[in-house]
Amino acid sequence: MSELISEIKRLAEQNFKEVRSIRHHLHANPELSFEEHETAEFIESKLKEWGISGFERIGNTGITFLLEGRQNGKTVALRADMDALPIQEANDVPYKSKNSGVMHACGHDVHTSSLLGAVKILNDIRDRFSGTVKVIFQPGEERVPGGASILIKEGILENPKPDKILGQHVMPLIPAGKVGFRPGKYMASADEIHLTIKGKGGHAAAPESLIDPVTVTSQIIVALQQIVSRNANPKIPSVLSFGKVVADGATNVIPDEVKVEGTFRTLDEKWRMEAHQKIANLSEGIARSMGAQCDVDIKKGYPYLVNDPNYTISNIKAAKEYLGEENVLDLDLWMAGEDFAFYSHHVDACFYRLGTRNEKKGIVSGVHTPTFDVDEEALKIGMGLMSWLAVNELNTT
Question: Are residues 292 and 344 located together in one domain of the fold?
Answer without folding.
Answer: no
